[in-house]
From TrEMBL:
Keywords: DNA recombination. Residues 14-72 form the DUF6538 domain. InterPro entries: DNA_brk_join_enz, DUF6538, Integrase-like_cat_sf. GO terms for biological process: DNA integration; DNA recombination. It comes from Nitratireductor pacificus pht-3B. One of its GO terms (molecular function) is DNA binding. This is Phage integrase family protein. Gene3D superfamilies: Intergrase catalytic core (1.10.443.10).
Amino acid sequence: MGRQRKSKADQDRYLQLRDGWYYYKRNVPTAVLLLDERAPRIRVSLKTDDLAIARAKRNLLEAGDEALWASLVEGDESNLARARHQAVMRRVEALGFSFRSSQALADSPSFNEIAERVEVLLSDRIEKETAVGLLGMTPVPATSVSEAFGVYCDEIVADELVNKSAVQKAQWKKVKQRAVNNFIAIVGDKAMAEITRDDAQRIYRYWLERIAPKEGRATHSASSGNRDIGNMRVLYDAYFQHMGDEERKNPFAGLNFSTRKKRSRPPFPSEWITGTIMKPGALATLNDEARGIALALIETGARPSEIANLQPSSIRLTHKIPHLAIEPRTDPDDPREIKTASSERLVPLVGIALEVFRRHKAGFPRYRNRENELSAALNKFFRANKLFPTAQHKIYSFRHTFEDRMKEGGLDEELRRILMGHTIDRPRYGAGGSLEWRAKELRRIALPFDPSIV
């Protein structure tokens, strides 16, 4: 059944046309009559005779009022303070202005903006909260770091998380939550507006002691410290921009550690793959799906998570050129992002990879949305069975080996980038070569194998 069209009355809810101008008019709900100073009725001039503009401004005011009233009913003081602030921001926006702090207005090189705001105040009856907000004098509510992180996840970046799987969301949040937890453990769960440069430097010194201790060996890399401080810097900026205080100086600005070039995981030598990993019996005691994924990595160069999360529709064995479609999952009940836009690609199936997918036509349901379990299982098995040449090798080394084999085999550089899902540093034209051509090139470097190992 298709979505029903809204009636005209519903589209124009809370709008009143008077003397050619639109107003936002609605009653304050009974449940909050004694809590909203504007009760019993709200009436705001929208300063327009254009219905489309009036609807857009109505939407701003409606959203602010709904959130405010919900917080009034809940009675949570911190949520209420934020809801009041957000409602004021929307009222200011509905008047045709951006919400700005008084300091930002004072620092503005143009006097006209202040004059325009004062003119609106003098020419209209505006309730006190909106008037104060219009002049940038509404204080940002005292929200603790932990509360601000909740606002960040639930409101500020909520749209960015929509297409992530549950595992991806958990991984995304885990790293950022660590930064918040470390800040609270070292400094305390301070109000965001009270964080000082000294607080930020305490976090810097905490990491400095672990990255470059005066005595003993380092326990953490520079990237760990940069990640923590960077996540606090992003949270601070995002929160105050969300609250309309875009000019606030960030206490975490400029604090970072020098990093060396990241050490790449070593690739497997090709002879190690054929003589040790693909030796009959080497993977026999590994469960079927984990074994299939490990072998599929050899001739696809894919990330383990990309293979584990393939949908049956992305395994295309009946096409003229059998191939995988590595792509995001768009099912709203089970979404999943891929790493980057360039990671979306078609990979021909050749050699051992084709044999694997002939056996696993529906993919690997045991590890779908369980890529962490897959990584742990494969790394544990390879270590226990001495299938890694060195302690530095990991399952991800298959991907580096694939890239090296393509380079040593003389495959076109752009083709290598496409098959690896890497960015191409020039405008892309066409589809990057036919699947027939891609498959022909990959067959040239395919490793020999015994079908019994699948």
